[in-house]
Design brief:
- It is a single chain.
- It contains 15 helices and no strands.
- It is an all-alpha fold and 291 residues long.
- The radius of gyration is 24 Å and the shape is elongated.
- Its main location: membrane.
- Keywords: Membrane, Transmembrane, Transmembrane helix.
- GO terms for molecular function: transmembrane transporter activity.
Length: 291
């Protein structure tokens, strides 16, 4: 995958190539400004300026300067993604248990394998069309109006609301509540957790920090997938799935996931709001260039 013109200019220090790439995108010729020319011909800079540029704009991932500037940001993006994926993948991988509890499909023991796959796939498609995809559309439309911070908080509120009044929402006429939860998962942290790490770190470290945050999320997904499988079992050992011990019930498992989301909401406080700000402003590169 080709790099962006921003990366070519700020990291690769190739102003001519960056200018050519921007010209292709904007469909008109981009002149090389004096600042870009300096990147191409660094010998025109006096030695003192070179030292200042290197010390101010070349710190590495494991440096004290990165820790002081972006350490809490990286902790915030990693922890929010970690806690989200515990909750998101738990209920995502085991939707069939939720569907059965709500009454949208029969218990697995009452269907053969083909019927179960068919009914689950049909419901998954319906939920994607009515909740998941519209949730992404709302995020795209409103993320620079509401801001990343408030969007990231939404899933917690609705998951706790569903879990606390679980018996109400499991009535067939009230099952719409679970559609709302899936909507606010995507018009919520399932979108912002992978958007924010791509905006707030310096260009040369952006992919690395995004990868670290994503890896933390996948670790949460593993924990959620295995943990929810056991937690969601019925309290009565006789009603638990074959081969599994008694759990805490689906309702209590959803409450646990709601509080996991709440921890992610607290960690969101470590992440700066990037609404209507450029990548250079968020990463601090703009200040470094003008210093």
């Amino acid at each position: 995958m080709p790099e962006t013109a921003r990366y070519t200019a700020l990291v690769a220090k190739d102003a001519k190539k960056a200018s050519a790439e921007m010209s292709k995108v904007l469909h008109h010729e981009i002149e090389i400004t004096p600042w870009l020319q300096i990147l191409v011909e660094p010998e025109i800079i006096v030695e003192q300026e070179i030292v200042e540029t290197e010390t101010g704009n070349s710190f590495g991932l494991f440096s004290l300067q990165f820790l002081s500037r972006h350490g809490l940001h990286l902790l915030g993006t990693s922890s929010t993604w970690f806690f989200l994926d515990i909750a998101f993948y738990s209920q995502n991988l085991f939707r069939k248990d939720i569907y059965s509890a709500v009454g949208w499909i029969d218990k697995p023991r009452k269907m053969n394998a083909i019927e179960e796959v068919y009914f689950i796939a049909r419901l998954q498609t319906f939920i994607a069309l009515c909740s998941t995809i519209p949730g992404y559309w709302f995020t795209v439309a409103l993320i620079d109006r509401i801001g990343r911070f408030w969007i990231q908080l939404m899933m917690t509120v609705f998951m706790l609301g569903l879990a606390i009044r679980y018996h109400h929402w499991t009535q067939p006429e009230n099952g719409i509540g679970f559609l709302v939860m899936y909507f606010f998962a995507n018009f919520g942290p399932n979108s912002t957790t992978f958007i924010v790490p791509a905006e707030i770190f310096p260009s040369r470290l952006r992919s690395t920090c995004h990868g670290i945050s994503a890896a933390a999320g996948k670790a949460g997904a593993v924990i959620g997938a295995f943990g929810f499988l056991y937690l969601a079992q019925d309290k009565d050992p006789k009603k638990a799935d074959p081969g599994y011990p008694a759990g805490i019930s689906l309702k209590n498992a959803l409450i646990v996931l709601g509080f996991v989301n709440f921890l992610g909401m607290l960690c969101t406080l470590l992440v700066p709001e990037s609404k209507c700000k450029s990548l250079e402003e968020m990463s601090g590169e703009k200040q470094e260039e003008t210093a």
